[in-house]
Amino acid sequence: MRFHKIAGILLLLSCCGWASIILPTDSSFETPDVSVVLCGPSGFDGCGYRPTGYGWFFTGSSGIASNGGVFGLDSPGNDNPAPDGNQAAFLQFDPSNPASFPGDISQTVTGLSVGQSYVVSFEAASRPDVIASSPFFGGEQDFDVLWNGSSIGYFFPTLTNFSKYFTASFTATTTTGLLAFLAIDTLGGDRTAFIDSVQVDELVPEPSNGLVVLSGIGLIGLGLRRGFVRLICNPNWLSAPASSRTAC
């Protein structure tokens, strides 16, 4: 029984990583380091608008914020540090400000399998309300997630601590695709959302891996069955010395 159980467990362990994960370049927005970068004309540091050259393409009111910076990421009392590293992307938009344009971040993702179904997962949070008496400066920024220009999810994080989100599934028609996050701001005012830990996940295991799972379960079941047969034939089989155990 021991051999079959061990073999089955090893087979199951070998397939635990069956769902492949595609990580975009700089999936947690750690480059460039913006912890000491002045954030626009505010005079405060900890954010960078529209950085270039690191995988993501930023347009409008978007960029990267660091823990402890002016955007309130990892601010005291809010329990909202970046979940992966020390930085997160931000999407900002203020429809009442002519100088503000919807924050948009995008990247061409490669390595997909044609015909395979995927979902995009990420962590998101609301920016803390910096001025508590004003409903028009802080978080509650809604946004769309787009794949090749088509929406695969609408999201509206309202909590300052990060939560995991998943888009609707899509099927890859080519080995590459354009992933984008676009601010909407249906409430109006100056609002911001944080995004971190972006990845593209296979929705289902490949058939070959499913067969590995079934094989592993079958071997474990076979081992257990053989043990039960021995116990039926000789109830004292387990307690008997190994040298005196006899098969049925």
What's the architecture of the largest domain, going by CATH?
Sandwich
Helical element count? Answer: 2
Helix content: 10-25%
Choose one word for the global shape: globular
Number of domains: 2
Give the biggest beta sheet: 9 strands, mixed
Average residue pLDDT: 81
CATH topology of the largest domain: Jelly Rolls
Pick out its properties.
five-stranded antiparallel beta sheet; 248 residues; 14 strands; nine-stranded mixed beta sheet; Jelly Rolls; alpha+beta; disordered N terminus; 2 helices; 2 domains; globular
Give a short synopsis of this structure.
By secondary structure, this protein is of the alpha+beta class. It contains 2 helices and 14 strands, in the order αββββββββββββββα.
Protein model, in words:
The structure is a single chain. This protein is α+β, with helices and mostly antiparallel strands. It has 2 domains: 2-12 and 206-244; 19-202, Galactose-binding domain-like (Jelly Rolls, Sandwich), CATH 2.60.120. 16% of the residues lie in helices and 31% in strands. It is built from 2 helices and 14 strands; from the N terminus they run αββββββββββββββα. The protein has helices at residues 2-14, 207-233; strands spanning 21-22, 47-49, 57-59, 62-66, 87-93, 104-110, 117-126, 137-138, 143-147, 150-155, 163-166, 170-171, 176-183, 190-202. Strands 1, 2, 4, 5, 7, 8, 11, 12 and 14 form a 9-stranded mixed β-sheet that branches. Helix 1 packs antiparallel against helix 2 (207-233). The longest helix is centred in the C-terminal third of the chain and has 27 residues, at 207-233. The radius of gyration is 26 Å and the shape is globular. 30% of the residues are buried.
